[in-house]
Q: What sequence folds into this?
């Protein structure tokens, strides 16, 4: 298949769904660990195509959602520094911090610019030499190489007023944390396609080896996801566990060596705090010593009040896959995309937003529409 509509072909999708239904497997919980997968699964009605014995869980795959309040509060504090222009992605603007949001402090006069790429932030720094420009970059392994390239470019150009508040995170350690927590039973992972274009399949090998759990790296079209589910069930039925790549048109076993080189040149692996999970060892990226002068936390004195969570928001439980949005009594009543209480409703990749927009699993959806 070469064209997008072929990956959304209704007849082929229903054929895959029938094959999934016919698989003789015990009841299984499969977790997708990517916000883009979560949205695609809801948008295309994939849950409704699956037999009862196959349950889909959503994991901590939305970078906006897993950024804890303590980091959002730091970004807000930086934005309130009169000499700073804070640059960030649009999704971060409405995410509530402990006491405010970037949207609110911008309305109160802070200079916050919404950018599409870290390179836009670099350009803002070049255009505003009298100001300090801080890029608040959230993201996983997918976006971190671009940040690394911007840092290298800033170094090459000798730009002195560009800084980076690093909240980049790494997905495989979060998967290990979920497995070690024993809070949720997982029989297979639909591994993130975008992240895997960078890291390849090796970083997931510990999952089948140490935990005996199958993994399939999947693309984002409905047929990709259905095929990945079928591939997981084949492993489960055969009592096998390995990392398979369904998304072969984009993912190679060894990943992207150029992007990986950027990462290892600029960043060091460090412990990181995830919303709802806490500190996960070696799950974040910080600037390496050579590039430490770009680190906003070293360059500025950032003073914040103790972080606190929104009352009754269950984003933490949802990100660990132990609750669904329907179990949050604020869902769709107090908390909506227009008035989000937690980040899982703000982000377009958030699980609460996907349930709200596409109906969760208890609403009849048009199944796998031909687009
Ligand atoms: Fe938080 Fe809103 Fe989701 Fe409830 S519905 S968990 S308040 S984001």
A:
């Amino acid at each position: 298949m070469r064209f997008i509509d072929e990956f959304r072909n209704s007849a082929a999708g229903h054929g895959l769904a029938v094959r999934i239904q016919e698989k003789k497997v015990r009841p299984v919980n499969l977790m997708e660990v990517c916000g883009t997968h979560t949205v695609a699964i809801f948008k295309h009605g994939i849950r409704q195509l699956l037999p009862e014995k196959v349950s889909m869980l959503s994991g901590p795959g939305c970078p906006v959602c897993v950024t804890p309040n303590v980091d959002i509060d730091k970004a807000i504090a930086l934005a309130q520094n009169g000499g700073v222009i804070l640059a960030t992605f649009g999704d971060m603007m409405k995410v509530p911090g402990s006491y405010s949001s970037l949207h609110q402090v911008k309305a109160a006069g802070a200079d916050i610019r919404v950018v599409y790429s870290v390179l836009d932030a670099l350009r803002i720094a070049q255009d505003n030499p009298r100001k300090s420009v801080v890029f608040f970059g959230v993201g996983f392994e997918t976006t971190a190489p671009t940040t690394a390239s911007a840092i290298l470019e800033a170094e090459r150009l000798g730009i002195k007023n560009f800084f980076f508040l690093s909240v980049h995170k790494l997905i495989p350690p979060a998967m290990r944390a979920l497995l070690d927590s024993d809070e949720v039973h997982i029989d297979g992972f639909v591994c993130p396609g975008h992240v895997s274009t960078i890291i390849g399949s090796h970083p997931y090998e510990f999952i089948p080896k140490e935990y005996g759990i199958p993994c399939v790296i999947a693309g984002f079209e409905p047929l990709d996801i259905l095929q990945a589910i079928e591939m997981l069930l084949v492993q489960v039925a055969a009592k096998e566990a390995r990392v398979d790549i369904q998304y072969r048109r984009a993912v190679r076993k060894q990943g992207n060596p150029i992007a990986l080189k950027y990462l290892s040149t600029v960043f060091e692996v460090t412990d990181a705090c995830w919303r709802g999970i806490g500190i996960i060892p070696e799950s974040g990226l910080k600037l390496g010593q050579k590039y430490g002068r770009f680190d906003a936390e070293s360059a500025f004195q950032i003073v914040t009040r103790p972080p606190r969570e929104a009352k009754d928001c269950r984003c933490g439980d949802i990100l660990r896959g132990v609750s669904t949005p329907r179990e949050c009594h604020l869902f769709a009543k107090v908390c909506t995309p227009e008035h989000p209480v937690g980040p899982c409703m703000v982000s377009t990749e958030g699980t609460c937003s996907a349930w709200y927009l596409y109906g969760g699993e208890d609403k009849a959806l048009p199944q796998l529409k031909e687009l």
Notes: Residues 362-371 have pLDDT under 50 and may be disordered.
